[in-house]
Write a structure and sequence with these properties.
The chain is of the alpha+beta class. The protein is built from 6 helices and 19 strands.
Length: about 280
């Protein structure tokens, strides 16, 4: 029986399933780290995506490109493209890539290495793999969430991509959640290790972290200490999550959040940046 890809309209995650019937339930949404839909699961077959959805992009910093889907599909993940002479790295993915965005990716140099932090950032990784045939890197502890695409390079807790990019397991939110550090741009791609609140002008004003965001499940003490250890290894000036660019969210602020939680009690509520200044 033939297989096809369906997107869960609630979270935007893709499921490889039989083309004669829709999936029964979305594995992302039935996991405790995500919420269930209000009524029932609905799915978008890949053949119905063109025309309903388009892909937008922008150069967020020199050589750092951001891709997203409009109207928003599911949680609305964003994909990042890091241009480099040795071959581009794509980290995380938008929920859908239309033909124009695929042409743009080709113009920018294509994709040599494709990776993601954890399932909430997978988006349409399978499309990028289909069209660019990259090395696809996922931490070994998250392989059980990768049925929609084929991982051809599972990794352990540390992996170097050339001399200027490092991947290091964060854990916490997901067992295999893995960060990517871009040394030239001083950016830490940290999955959902941090949740950023913004003001109306798009300026970061508060930080939080969680094991499960929708159900306000906090991290454990040891998980927070491991986050702090990873943050302490990299002199980052900005962060990228699967959903946003955190301009100015740097190493000092990220570690200050951990110290604040360990001092005042572990919770999932946003902590204003003004409250973190005493820990910087």
């Amino acid at each position: 029986m033939a297989l096809t890809h369906y997107a869960c309209t609630h979270c935007g995650g893709w499921i490889l399933w039989f083309d004669s019937r829709e999936p029964v339930a979305c594995p992302n949404c039935t996991d405790v780290r995500n919420a269930l839909p209000q009524e029932d699961f609905t799915y978008l077959p890949i053949g119905e995506a063109p025309g309903q959805f388009s892909t937008q992009w922008q150069e967020t910093l020199p050589g750092l490109w951001e891709f997203w889907t409009t109207p928003q599909l599911g949680l609305g993940s964003h994909g990042w493209l890091l241009q480099r002479d040795e071959g581009n790295i794509a980290f995380e993915a938008a929920p859908f890539y239309d033909e124009a965005s695929r042409r743009q990716l080709a113009v920018l140099g294509g994709i040599r290495v494709l990776a993601a932090s954890h399932p909430h950032g997978y988006g349409a990784l399978w499309q990028l793999q289909k069209f660019f045939d990259p090395e696809l890197i996922i931490h070994k502890d998250d392989l059980k969430y990768t049925k929609a695409f084929r991982v051809n390079h599972p990794i352990d807790d540390f992996h170097a991509i050339g001399a200027e990019h490092e991947m290091l397991r964060l854990g916490g939110h997901y067992e295999g959640q893995t960060a990517l550090y871009d040394h030239p741009r001083r950016i830490l791609f940290l999955g959902d290790a941090l949740k950023i609140d913004f003001d109306a002008a798009g300026v970061p004003v508060a930080l939080s972290c969680h094991k499960g965001y929708h159900y306000a499940i906090p991290l454990t003490r040891d998980e927070l200490l491991h986050y702090r250890e990873v943050f302490g290894r990299f002199d980052f000036a900005h962060v990228c999550t699967p959903f946003e660019f955190g301009r100015g969210v740097n190493q000092a602020l990220a570690t200050a959040l951990i110290d604040y939680l360990l001092t005042h009690g572990i919770h999932t509520s946003p902590v204003p940046l003004t409250s973190l200044q005493a820990y910087v």
